[in-house]
Specification:
Its main location: membrane. The protein is mainly alpha-helical. It has a single domain, classed as Up-down Bundle (Amino acid/polyamine transporter I), CATH 1.20.1740. It contains 16 helices and no strands. The longest helix has 37 residues. The chain is globular, with a radius of gyration of 22 Å.
């Protein structure tokens, strides 16, 4: 057999962008007006790029399957490796509720009942029905294999291009709309208003656009000349994502009237564009259906992805044999059903929080905080492994000599992650003042409980939990 074909530079850029291409985050970005330029550049430079570059070194030095869990385990020990894999699993409880919340909104436009997009009970029921439906289908069929490639094209790329094209045409026709989130341009609007702390948590929602940036590092060993080409691919991908998201974000910010952005409703700007440009309304039904397909395909990928990683952790003896159960097709049934039950419980937030946009932002922030703890562990591990295992070959290495560049990049990442977590604890402006304390308690409790559960499980694990080799 010949050697496996190496990825080209452009191939890796395409794969990296595929991980982050989504129209779902555009309303969150657009809601910050001109400040989105500052937020996106900040998120890219101090969050996405440092984590992607560290992950590239770690994945080429420790290429075994498992990624972050393997890196942290080698650096900080098995306990923190388990915490890492656990957090990457439990963050999806919140992340998938946020993603699934768009199902009801999109379906309301598909069936020409847009008022349902504001009905909390309808949104809640659609989360339950869609996630459990996708879960049951995945237990029977390989849905990612069936729908993966065309699902991304139909549900992500075409709608994103359509949004950008319509937005540019709308801007060419009207210029800057003074009643929109952009309003009249002033240089001061490019920076956040630090006197309005309630606006800062939106930065967390924007940083979430880049959550998962470490995933593309698994391809670092499969590219020609990784030392040269991987950083080029990462930087090019992040810059392209910044440009595309900003064009879309600024276009939507220019179209939606100030104070009326619906964060969970990506169809809202399409409706504004089509009405203004004289495009038949059936376009909105079609584009909503296309995005809905993309959301369902994304949900399908997440149903099995993290659970397959967790069952390997369970087999190593970190969880009781109950968690090691598989179906005849090898699907980790216990993990799949547990995550469906917990996601159903978390989705109750859409019943108890009247404002759907507020619920969407709160859950996005919770997901980002959990991701940030993983990135904190990765950053510390990247430094630690330079001293603990200096002789491990790293085809891609930050800095040809010494550890100075690694210290700089990792420190930048640590500061960015800590600041993100702190900003996340500021109640957003959309939360009523009477609920501010409840918001902080919820975010702290959700984070602490998820970490403590992992530490307790690890503390009481037993040798007999380890799966016996057949």
């Amino acid at each position: 057999m010949g050697k496996p074909k190496k990825l080209s530079l452009f191939g890796l850029i395409g794969i990296t962008m595929a991980f982050f291409g989504t129209v779902r985050s555009v309303p969150t970005l657009a809601s910050t007006g001109w400040t989105q330029i500052f937020y996106m550049l900040l998120a890219a430079c101090v969050f996405a790029l440092p984590i992607a570059l560290m992950s590239a070194e770690l994945s080429t030095g420790w290429p075994e399957e498992g990624g972050p869990q393997v890196w942290v385990k080698n650096a900080l020990g098995e306990k923190w490796g388990f915490v890492t894999s656990w957090l990457l699993w439990v963050q999806m409880f919140f992340g998938m509720v946020m993603v699934a919340s768009t199902v009801g909104v999109l379906l309301s436009y598909v069936i020409n009942q847009p008022e349902l997009a504001h009905n909390n009970l309808f949104i809640f029921l659609m989360i339950i029905i869609s996630y459990w439906g996708i879960t049951l289908l995945n237990l029977k069929f390989d849905m990612v294999k069936i729908a993966g490639d065309w699902g991304a094209i139909i549900g992500v790329y075409i709608p994103f291009v359509a949004l950008v094209v319509l937005g540019v045409i709308y801007f060419a026709k009207h210029g800057i709309n003074p009643d929109s989130y952009l309003g009249h341009f002033e240089a001061g609007k490019l920076l956040p208003d630090f006197s309005d702390l309630g606006s800062l948590p939106t930065l967390t929602g924007i940083i979430f656009i880049f959550a998962g940036v470490e995933i593309s590092s698994v391809h670092a060993n499969n590219i020609d000349n990784p030392k040269r080409n991987y950083p080029i691919a990462v930087i090019a991908s992040v810059l392209l994502l910044v440009v595309f998201n900003l064009v879309a974000g600024l276009s939507v910010a220019d179209a939606v009237p100030a104070g009326q952005m619906e964060l969970a409703d990506i169809t809202q700007p399409f409706v504004i564009f089509t009405q203004d440009l004289g495009i038949p309304s059936i376009f909105n039904n079609i584009i909503s259906l296309m995005i809905l397909i993309g959301v369902l395909v994304q949900l399908s990928a997440w149903v099995l992805g993290p659970s397959k990683s967790m069952i390997k952790v369970a087999d190593e003896g970190n969880l009781p044999p109950f968690f090691q159960k598989r179906t005849s097709k090898g699907i980790p049934i216990t993990f799949v059903l547990i995550q469906a039950v917990v996601i159903s419980l978390v989705s109750f937030l859409y019943v108890v929080i009247p404002d759907i946009s507020a619920a969407f932002l709160i859950i996005t922030i919770t997901t980002t905080i959990l991701y940030c703890i993983v990135y904190l562990l990765i950053s510390i591990s990247a430094i630690k492994l330079r001293y603990k295992m200096p002789n491990v070959e790293r085809p891609f290495r930050l800095g040809s000599k010494g550890n100075g560049l690694m210290w700089f990049v990792a420190s930048l990442s640590i500061v960015a992650v800590v600041v993100t977590i702190l900003v996340s604890l500021i109640p957003p402006a959309s939360i009523a003042e009477s609920a501010h304390t409840g918001y902080v308690i919820y975010q702290v409790a959700a984070t602490v409980i998820m970490v403590v559960i992992a530490l307790v499980i690890y503390k009481f694990k037993k040798p007999e939990w380890k799966k016996k080799e057949k």
